[in-house]
């Protein structure tokens, strides 16, 4: 387990708090569970949404095919994995939506329309507005105005 910054934990908490009441009883938000992709690759996303019945089983690992939405919060050590490697793997397994929250840059990247080589849709939104993600789970609203931004992040001019 690698140490994480307070901004990372705050971002995870605020997004979880925003998502959970929008999902209803059929879906659950889980954190840091293993999604095994093959013998050599497994990821533990910061947040994942899967059927509530599966979450109630209280496992440490779940098949990626159960997951509809993944949220990753970027840390300095995870930049390449979050932006390059994970989108290909998540999309290839049919995970409908992938969100990257980046406190290092103060931005949210939404990815949708998964295919075998990655996501075919992508938007980059600077923190500030409420972002609406149209997903198989419904219209999910992610407030970004109060998400923390690293003080060393470049500021837009």
Main β-sheet, spatial strand arrangement: 1-4-5-6-7-8
List segments where confidence is low: pLDDT < 50 over at least 5 consecutive residues.
Answer: none
Roughly what is the average pLDDT, rounded to an integer? 93
Per DSSP E runs of 2 or more residues, the count of β-strands stands at: 10
Classify the secondary structure makeup into a structural class. Answer: alpha+beta
**What is the chain-wise order of helices and strands?**
HEEEEHEHEEEEE
Task: Give the terminus-to-terminus CA distance.
Answer: 36 Å
Q: Strand portion, in percent?
A: 35-45%
Q: Sum up the overall morphology in one term.
A: globular
How big is the Rg? 15 Å
What's the story with the biggest beta sheet?
6 strands, mixed
Helix content: 10-25%
Number of DSSP helical runs: 3
Keywords, separated by commas or semicolons:
157 residues, alpha+beta, 10 strands
A few lines on this structure:
With 157 residues, this protein is of the alpha+beta class. The protein has three helices and ten strands, in the order H-E-E-E-E-H-E-H-E-E-E-E-E.
Helix/strand layout:
Elements: H1 6-23, E1 27-30, E2 35-38, E3 41-43, E4 47-51, H2 52-55, E5 69-73, H3 79-92, E6 97-102, E7 107-115, E8 118-126, E9 130-135, E10 138-143
Parallel strand pairs: 5-6
Antiparallel strand pairs: 1-4, 2-3, 4-5, 6-7, 7-8, 9-10
Question: In words, what does this structure look like?
Answer:
Helices cover 23% and strands 36% of the residues. It is of the alpha+beta class and 157 residues long. Strand 5 (69-73), helix 3 and strand 6 form a beta-alpha-beta unit. The longest helix is centred in the N-terminal third of the chain and has 18 residues, at 6-23. The chain is globular, with a radius of gyration of 15 Å.
